[in-house]
Amino acid sequence: GAGVSQTPSNKVTEKGKYVELRCDPISGHTALYWYRQSLGQGPEFLIYFQGTGAADDSGLPNDRFFAVRPEGSVSTLKIQRTERGDSAVYLCASSPGSGTDTQYFGPGTRLTVL
Amino acid sequence: SQQGEEDPQALSIQEGENATMNCSYKTSINNLQWYRQNSGRGLVHLILIRSNEREKHSGRLRVTLDTSKKSSSLLITASRAADTASYFCATDAAGGFKTIFGAGTRLFVKA
Description:
The structure holds two protein chains of two kinds.
Chain A: E1 5-7, E2 10-13, E3 19-24, E4 31-37, E5 44-50, E6 53-56, E7 65-68, E8 75-79, E9 88-95, E10 104-105, E11 109-113
Parallel strand pairs in A: 2-11
Antiparallel strand pairs in A: 1-3, 3-8, 4-5, 4-9, 5-6, 7-8, 9-10, 9-11
Chain B: E1 5-7, E2 10-14, E3 19-24, E4 29-37, E5 43-50, E6 55-58, E7 61-66, E8 71-76, E9 85-93, E10 99-101, E11 105-110
Parallel strand pairs in B: 2-11
Antiparallel strand pairs in B: 1-3, 3-8, 4-5, 4-9, 6-7, 7-8, 9-10, 9-11
């Protein structure tokens, strides 16, 4: 079956602009995660959804970052007033149930802020 | 700060040799997972070991978990050039939802 998909695969934007990154999880997976990965580092947790609600958003770095999952499936990560330090690969993962299940990762969106 | 810390940071071996990577973490966990990432982006899940398990095998992979030392090891036997990748451990803190990844071990297997 289809895996986790993320769009766009690459996004180049200018400092100060607004961006939206989309994640389509595996059908039926109730848990959805967003991570950010900088070069040479491991993924850094941003937010975890169980269904439509954000069960843990403690990893969002500041109020410029926001994520939604209105119907419990597709999720959008929104970044306002982008800064050069936001440049990274943004990864999405889904899992069938709770946070203790195996996570299935998408290919990521490479965000470059000029 | 990240919960899991892998060592070594980088490892270079010949094809056919075994590769051992270690991971340490700080707090009580529900489970520990190992992931692999080729150059590029997607992470692939390798193996999950629960806090009440001590050892698990999957093909050429062997994972151990020592909760008293808060550490885990991943052994890849009879390595192949195709095993060249970055390997990450990830932990779910007991009672929480957050998954914390370490900085990874970069494995290079020479043909």
